[in-house]
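Consider the tokenized backbone below.
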């Protein structure tokens, strides 16, 4: 069964790379219809990745979140889900090309990671009352809520980052009068600024809930809500960056380049929190305190 999961993961990776190639060809050829086929390939990749994660969940008896490989593929799935919603709502081919490059690279990297099955340690099986009614295989405890909120916030921040990069690129072209083939394909600066803010407005409450549920889970598992380890401290730092970003947008009425730069910095903090902390400390976040 795990072989089946791996094959669908490979199929998802191929589909996303093919979708990216179609979107790039769409800009070179100037054929809008190519975007339709690119969208179909991206949806096929989402279906294949969904099947891969579902099969893996059924085989090991819990959600695929216990190893870095599982965490990364699940995160790509979440970001891909949010992207497909935005693509359905706004039909934005340039965002598709940027996002698919990131998602395809993430899955390609995941394929080279160890894919061993790991059982949930007892400390991760603390079950909150709100999900005790779920089937046993889905009862991953407070971890289920914590990871769900965090991953969807990371997905929103990923899109905010990509939109922010497009804003900065568009702004650079306008200021320096250096227009590329992409200039006419990008939305206006006002539109990009609005969408960047929208993604932050989605991601920040989810990150807040992720930190809160993670603290509650820690209290059940280790007897303390917070102990200032590297992962928790950096999560708080990341939360503060986005809190300030919202403050300056909503209270100080910042718009444009300064506000967008804040969200780009916030996403870099997310990346370090997700990748850097685990690599520096050489162990998963779940086992930082021991069990």
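A designed sequence for it:
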């Amino acid at each position: 069964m795990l072989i089946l999961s791996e094959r669908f993961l490979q199929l998802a990776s191929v589909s996303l790379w093919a979708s990216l190639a179609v979107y790039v060809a769409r800009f070179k050829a100037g054929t809008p219809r190519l975007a339709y086929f690119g969208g179909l390939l991206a949806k096929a990749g989402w279906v294949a990745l969904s099947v891969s994660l579902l099969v893996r969940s059924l085989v090991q008896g819990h959600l695929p979140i216990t190893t870095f490989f599982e965490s990364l593929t699940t995160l790509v799935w979440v970001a891909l889900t949010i992207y497909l919603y935005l693509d359905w709502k706004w039909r934005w081919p340039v965002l598709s090309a940027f996002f698919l490059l990131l998602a395809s690279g993430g899955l390609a990297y995941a394929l080279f990671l160890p894919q061993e099955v790991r059982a949930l340690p007892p400390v991760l099986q603390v079950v909150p009352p709100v999900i005790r009614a779920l089937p046993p295989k889905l009862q991953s405890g407070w971890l289920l809520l914590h990871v769900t909120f965090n991953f969807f916030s990371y997905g929103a921040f990923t899109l905010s980052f990509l939109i922010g990069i497009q804003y900065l690129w568009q702004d650079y072209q306008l200021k320096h009068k250096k227009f590329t083939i992409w200039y006419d394909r990008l939305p206006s600066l006002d539109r990009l600024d609005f969408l960047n803010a929208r993604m932050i407005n989605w991601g920040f409450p989810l990150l807040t809930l992720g930190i809160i549920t993670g603290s509650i889970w820690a209290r059940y598992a280790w007897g303390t809500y917070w102990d200032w380890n590297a992962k928790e401290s950096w999560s708080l730092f990341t939360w503060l960056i986005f809190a300030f970003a919202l403050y300056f947008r909503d209270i100080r009425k910042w718009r444009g380049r300064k506000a967008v730069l804040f969200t780009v910095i916030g996403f870099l903090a997310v990346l370090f929190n997700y990748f850097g902390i685990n690599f520096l400390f050489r162990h998963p976040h779940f086992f930082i305190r021991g069990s």
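Residues 124-291 form one domain.
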